[in-house]
From TrEMBL:
GO molecular function: DNA binding
Alphabetized Pfam families for the sequence: DUF5753 (PF19054), HTH_31 (PF13560)
HTH cro/C1-type domain mapped to chain residues: 20-76
Listed InterPro entries: Cro/C1-type_HTH (IPR001387), DUF5753 (IPR043917), Lambda_DNA-bd_dom_sf (IPR010982)
Source organism: Streptomyces subrutilus
Protein name per Swiss-Prot or TrEMBL: Transcriptional regulator
Length: 278
């Protein structure tokens, strides 16, 4: 069968497509063979290989599993994040690759709703604000929103991970988007809290110095029970794998949970905000 000649140097997307075909050829798989393994149509795979379709994180992760790349440093998912790298913090792509496989996710966020819990409208409002400030381009804004959507696939995984979220009160006191969009975002938090295997807590301003973290933090428990932590500054992210360091971070996270509002009180606070009650 005649095949289009690929030009991997034409663009990052073309390079991804060429690597995908190379991996497929190495396994002596046809498009239909790979289609059966990753549950994407042969025409979709062909479109990715020929750089006519943009690869998504979900697509790349399924291909990684099929090719035996999951857990290595040369995943196709990492390639997708490098393609989108201009809109992401350094170190973030490695974290998200781990997040997609995590058995448990513990997070603390301040100032903004965490990406795993954002509505599309909220994510888009944040991205467009960054465009208006000249921080990113419109294309990078679209990439940021796409990354949020891709990350949330982990919540629909079978089985889904256990997710525990502690949000600083500033997250729910800072309206983003229109009134309707902000109300939908608060409703999304309440929906999350009602799902099995989730915990949502607010860290109120009254905690003062008892709030144990000042920057966003994520702690992942992987399927093999190893633990990694991810923290961000204004310019980059860092994935910490040292067991002793992560154990200390996890202990501090438990202290934060103990001091934060219980889920019922947190939900009541969010409901009051939706009703316009201080």
């Amino acid at each position: 069968m005649n095949r289009n000649e690929l030009s991997p140097d034409a663009s990052p997307r073309a390079a991804f497509g060429a690597r995908l075909r190379s991996l497929r050829d190495a396994h002596s798989w046809t498009l239909d063979d790979l289609s059966a393994r990753i549950e994407y149509s042969a025409s979709h795979i062909s479109g990715v290989e020929n750089a006519k379709r943009e690869p998504t994180i979900k697509f790349a992760e399924r291909a990684d599993r099929a090719f035996g790349l999951t857990g290595t440093r040369e995943t196709l998912a990492s390639d997708v994040f490098r393609i989108r790298g201009g809109s992401l913090l350094e170190g973030f792509s490695e974290y998200v690759t781990c997040e997609a496989r995590a058995a448990e996710v513990r997070l603390f966020e301040t100032g903004v709703i965490p990406g795993l819990l954002q509505t599309e409208e909220y994510a888009n409002a944040l991205a467009q604000s960054a465009v208006q400030r000249g921080i990113i381009t419109p294309e990078q804004a679209r990439e940021r929103v796409a990354v949020v959507a891709d990350r949330q696939n982990v919540l629909r995984r079978t089985p889904p991970p256990l997710v525990m979220a502690v949000l600083d009160e500033s997250c729910v006191r800072r309206p983003i988007g229109t009134d309707a969009q902000w109300d939908a975002q608060l409703a999304r938090l309440l929906e999350f809290a009602e799902q099995p295997g989730t915990v949502l807590q607010l860290a109120p301003f009254t905690m003062g110095v008892r709030r144990t973290f000042d920057l966003p933090l994520y702690v992942l428990t992987m399927p093999d029970r190893s633990i990694v932590a991810y923290a961000e500054s204004a310019t980059r992210g860092h994935l910490q794998r040292d067991g002793r360091v992560v154990a200390a971070i996890l202990g501090t996270y438990y202290q934060l949970q103990a001091e934060a509002l219980p889920q019922a009180a947190s939900a009541a606070t969010i409901n009051a905000l939706r009703k316009g009650t201080p």
